[in-house]
Write a structure and sequence with these properties.
This protein is 34% helix and 25% strand. It is α+β, with helices and mostly antiparallel strands and 297 residues long. It has two domains: 162 residues, Ribosomal Protein S5, domain 2 (2-Layer Sandwich), CATH 3.30.230.10; 122 residues, GHMP kinase, C-terminal domain (Alpha-Beta Plaits), CATH 3.30.70. The strands form two sheets. Strands 1, 2, 3, 4, 5, 6 and 7 form a seven-stranded mixed β-sheet that branches. A four-stranded antiparallel β-sheet has the order 9-10-8-11, with helices on both faces.
Amino acid sequence: MASNADRRAVERARAKINLTLHVVGRRGDGYHLLESFVVFAEAGDELAFAPADRFALEVAGPFGGGLSGGGDNLVLRAAHALSERFPGRIPPTHLTLAKHLPVSSGIGGGSADAAAALRGLCALAGLSPGGDTLHELARGLGADVPVCLESRATFMAGIGERLSAAPGLPAHGAVLVNPGHAVSTPDVFARLDLTPGEGAGASHPPLPAGGWRTAEELAGLLGACRNDLEIPARALVPEIDQVLDALEACPGTLLARMSGSGATCFALFGSRADADAAAGRIATAHPGWWVVATAFR
């Protein structure tokens, strides 16, 4: 894209991947307390912006059929919330969401889309609100929207409001696989059956300040961690077992795990070539699954 204006016309909404997810408590109001190492994939949705006389949303793309473009969509809610926060500063816009990520799949698609709307509309308006202002607005839209605003490696704690920069990742490749089943996040958390004050396991170990030299080192740390939502999600969607088995069977797999509340799973590889080969192998064996080779940041 040649110009700044062109670059502002489209925002990438990258898939959010929970490399780890420790549920360390439950509050009296029912919210669960998390500690999670979050990264973002090259793969994602795209949100395009065009001048209009009112805010409107058009949904397209291979996974757009199951989504509404109405006012309850998180993208439109983000646009209206930003416009209300900065009256007269945000121009009415027609937004077109190209939905390339599966819906309700544990990779933060809706939150990433809302964050992309906030970033894109601010850019179009020439608006640079302070980080605290934008993050406060994002928190009102959903717990994962603030981390998706940054769209880079982050350690997330609390109910999503405590964010700290994480070390950059070493050279690697990755594969994302979804078996085509939407998963209800509330249903997964309900299966944990935690009482207020109770956690699902030990706290998350600290991330090394210096990062990791190799993908193998990164996989070693991740292997000492867990996703506490994986077992309850696998009970709800047994196909997750098949996805993890397929990923673990690929040559070069360093680690395979479910992301978020599922059903999308990822595998980490030492190189992009290994990831490309694994994605081709799985896509051939399971043509009904969503499979993509990617990398994280």
